[in-house]
Amino acid sequence: MSTDEILKFKLSLEGIPSALMPDEYSSSDGIDNLNDLVLCRDAEGEPHAVYHQVKWSFIPYDPVNKPVINFDMLVGRKALDEEQKQALEVWIAETKYILFLLMYYRQTGHTGRMTIGTLYLYYRLLSHMSCFCLKMISDNPFVTSLSLRDVFSSKMWIAKYLMQPDIPEWRIRLLRGLLSHLETIGENKTGIGIPKGVREDIEVDSEEKTVNQHPPIPPDIYVALLNRFDDSMDLIEPHIKKLEKFIARFSDPFYGRTEETQERHSRDILDFHYRPTFPEALSKYRLVGFAKTFDINSVRDLTMWLHKVQALLKMTIHIYTGMRDKEALRIEYNCVEQEEITSERKGDDGVVVEARMIDVISTTTKFTGYRKVSRWLLPEEALRAVTIVKGIARGLSAVCGVNYSEQKIFISPTVITHSAQRGQVAYPNLRKRHISHWISDITITDKDLSLLSAIDGSRDWMDNPVFGVGEIWPLTSHQGRRSLAMYGSNSGLVKLPTLRRQYHHVCAGMSRYYTNGFDKITQVFGVYDEDTGEYVLPEHHIIHEVQTGIHVAKAGQLMNELILGDESLFGKRGGYIERLRADTPDDEVFIIEVRAETERKVAAGEMTYRENLVGGCVGLTPCDDYVLGDVSAGHCLTCPDSSTKMSKVEALIVEIKQDMKKFEKNSGEYKSLAAELRALEDYREYKINRKETFNGG
What is the pLDDT of residues 217-258, one digit of tens each? Predict the structure, then answer.
């Protein structure tokens, strides 16, 4: 910029006569001559906002909202000592100058000119950040001074600012916007060196604020999605090495284009030689059948297909790991690690037992507003998805001209058709239509709506047109997270139809490694807190939802099997529960309160429930008899924690009688079953006779 450039006020002032416009500013004047700059005039030309004044009124430009910036109130009405008053003068000067930069240097972008209202919001942000600086120098004796420039120039201070409790989403969005503007204006004018990449590191996450928009996926649809994703990967995975090399060839902008296109764009190139057309390229890489399967007939088709397959693979990762949207997009190439769960040891027989390992996937995640590394359990199917998308990333990195090992695994395929983007790497813009391509025949049924109502009765599913019968299921990434927490934790709230074998391993892994019983849970999946020197679980990790799902499931079993059940209960604890039932009013509000209290007690470890062959058990201590399946007299039937159901006793009697027919009468197996049968029949006779006597029969 030349030293005598004249700068005009860049905020939106539609309809304001030119005579009322703010002053122009000559860059040759320098920042020391800003004091008399008029920023707002009224209809008579009288100044309402002059740079040096302590109050800027923009009411003439916005008479509806009446915005007034009062710098005396930058940190509120707090009582300040002399040092704090001097610091306030610095913050006021910085705030004024930043607002001036936004008014005169901010370039008009695709969103148009900034409004007075937006400028006022930036003032509120700077006011809040000034209060933060005041708090830091007041609370920490080692921080003797802290300017806004210090905060904007340091990743550490920006992180500290974002770690404040209850910081609203709009303020985080404004901070990202302000950092972008300051970065664009440049350090030579702002005097602020914005740390590289800090703006991208700040994530605004409204996903958790919209729980109602993310229902759990009904069981039948959930199974159909899992099978569809797995089947689709089966078709793609065998070809990934050829695909990687094929994609990389499109670093040549002529490769795969029609001869007409190559001729049109090569007229100024001497000794031009024609590249293979798209059909010829497919044949060379032995991908003709593959392309036919997915209807890929041109370079543009390939780009569209890559968007679709990235959406498929990303959703697979969501469904099997529980990652959120931005977390999956930020997975870096070297993301998979193995964690040792048990160390190598010698068994009782002297044979070495190898260490047990699990796969984990890492990414950077929002942690109180700022990114840190976090990790998730990586099931086999999710690992397949990561492997496939990494192959695609290697090919696209070659097109971009970058080292794939330094990139995220999700790279925009548009670089293939837009050669101007070469040398740059961008996230893919994955839309709803990209995932809908794979699930267009997975539609909602009446049964799905009924099950949705059973799972989440707080919403009126029948009247929502998005969830109408016959509509394609409106799949989102957060649904995968919520459904994994519900189904993967073996909650028992909803019985899934037959699943692929691999998903049972997912459920087992979730239950084993995401519960409090896993003693390395924070070490393996946590984030290292430098202040405390300990590992902590990120606030939004799916671990918390899994653990909550398990507690809710146990409480649901207790309520449904015992408190709200119709069948008579026997046993010491069963008799007590029978008396509780009699005292439980048939009142929906009361039942909700009891369920909430039951969930609390289960979560606190004060209550539990597990089914057994003769009913259920509410014992809190480990039970060897339960593990061994021993329900004979002196064990489950007479246990003080038993809650026996006569229907289960009857069913077990029938089953044992059938089993006894398989053995000789003098065999040990027969005698063992006979003893168990006698115990069950004696128990049945005793309880039935006792009940008849009690009832006066």
Answer: 888 888 888 889 989 999 999 999 999 999 999 999 999 999
Q: Name every residue whose Cβ is closer than 8 Å to that of residue 443 and which is 6 or more positions away in sequence.
A: 469, 470, 471, 472, 473
Q: Burial letters for 475-508: b for 16+ Cβ neighbours within 10 Å, e otherwise?
A: bbbbbbbbbbbbbbbbbebbeeeebeeebeebbe
CA distance 503 to 500: 6
Choose among 391, 381, 346, 342: nearest CA to 361: 381
Query: Quick one: DSSP state of residue 598?
Result: H
Q: Both tokens of residue 45?
A: 């030309």
Instruction: Give which of 639, 165, 672, 87 is closest to 369, Cα–Cα.
Output: 165
- Amino acid 495: pLDDT: 46
8 A C-beta contact, residue 402 and residue 414: no
pTM: 0.51
Rounded distance between C-alpha atoms, residue 539 and residue 274, angstroms: 56
What are the C-alpha distances in Å from 3 to residues 29, 100, 189? Answer: 9, 18, 12
* Percent of the chain whose pLDDT exceeds 90: 24
Around 333, how many Cα atoms within 13 Å sit in the side-chain half-sphere?
15
CB of 93 closer than 8 Å to CB of 87 = no
Q: Which residues of the chain have pLDDT under 70?
A: 1-19, 27-32, 107-113, 142, 200-201, 203-214, 338-360, 364-374, 420-421, 423, 454-459, 485-486, 488-566, 571-611, 619-635, 687-697
Instruction: Count CA atoms closer than 13 A to 71's CA, side-chain side.
Output: 20
